Amino acid sequence: MATFADLPDSVLLEIFSYLPVRDRIRISRVCHRWKRLVDDRWLWRHVDLTLYTMRPKVMWHLLRRYMASRLHSLRMGGYLFSGSQAPQLSPALMRALGQKCPNLKRLCLHVANLSMVPITSLPCTLRTLELHSCEISMAWLLKEQDPTVLPLLECIVLDRVPAFRDEHLQGLTRFRALRSLVLGGTYRVTETGLDMGLQELSYLQRLEVLGCTLSADSTLLAISRHLRDVRKIRLTVRGLSAPGLSVLEGMPALESLCLLGPLITPEMPSPREILSSCLTMPKLRVLELQGLGWEGQEAERILSKGLPHCMVIVRACPKESMDWWM
């Protein structure tokens, strides 16, 4: 029977990649071979630190000893609700990430207090920035800030960032490389603010609006007015009607449309009305309906048969998405 010692390095590295960071470091003490593998650059391309309340000293050690130029993506927790004695993210740590991790492309921050961390301290190499349940200062994303900050940023995810409002949305125009925007639970963004913001973000290719107070009809209207080149739309169906969906008819570049429930109202378009609108979208290749209760029903058959050129996905809402409607 084969043992761990018989496995090639590539297989062991794949196994080790599923281990939490703390366990990776512990197994480096097993033998010289495992220590060499734990030091392999490939193993430290993607690091998730959200499982730990980590002291600054330990974080600095990881940065110097293991991550450095190897790191491509990093997930970190900020312990916003852990009390005043919990370690917090600092401008010095953010600047060190930029200096020591020149290949860092994706940074995901969870439950972090960033009110004292200027956006100018973030690594300039970032292409994706995700903020989940974070506090930011009012000045973070305003137009008046330095336009040279994060020059490569292509995607920004704002998930339950309570301070984010209309002025911040308009301020995103300073990121000229931005192509993807995800707004989740950003309840301070108004319909007027969304319309004005998208007018200046006309170059977006992907937009997701999830769990916000905005109606789906008003969101789609703003998209149809200003985002003629958008390729992917994903939004909750709150306030969606057949006339609201029809404003997307003829969208020239739209390739993927995802509608998420379960807040279905009497005004919700029927499967045949959805089919009618989708048939006018020349490049549509993916239609996804989540949490509408249509899986295995006549609605799924109508859409699949009527859109033979599309991948039609009708399914229940995944558990990790349910909190948008709680």
Automatic annotation (TrEMBL):
<protein>
    <recommendedName>
        <fullName>F-box/LRR-repeat protein 12</fullName>
    </recommendedName>
</protein>
<dbReference type="InterPro" id="IPR001810">
    <property type="entry name" value="F-box_dom"/>
</dbReference>
<keyword id="KW-0677">Repeat</keyword>
<keyword id="KW-0433">Leucine-rich repeat</keyword>
<comment type="pathway">
    <text>Protein modification; protein ubiquitination.</text>
</comment>
<comment type="subunit">
    <text>Interacts with SKP1 and CUL1.</text>
</comment>
<dbReference type="InterPro" id="IPR032675">
    <property type="entry name" value="LRR_dom_sf"/>
</dbReference>
<keyword id="KW-0833">Ubl conjugation pathway</keyword>
<comment type="function">
    <text>Substrate-recognition component of the SCF (SKP1-CUL1-F-box protein)-type E3 ubiquitin ligase complex. Mediates the polyubiquitination and proteasomal degradation of CAMK1 leading to disruption of cyclin D1/CDK4 complex assembly which results in G1 cell cycle arrest in lung epithelia.</text>
</comment>
<feature type="domain" description="F-box">
    <location>
        <begin position="1"/>
        <end position="47"/>
    </location>
</feature>
<dbReference type="InterPro" id="IPR036047">
    <property type="entry name" value="F-box-like_dom_sf"/>
</dbReference>
<dbReference type="GO" id="GO:0005737">
    <property type="term" value="C:cytoplasm"/>
</dbReference>
<dbReference type="Pfam" id="PF12937">
    <property type="entry name" value="F-box-like"/>
</dbReference>
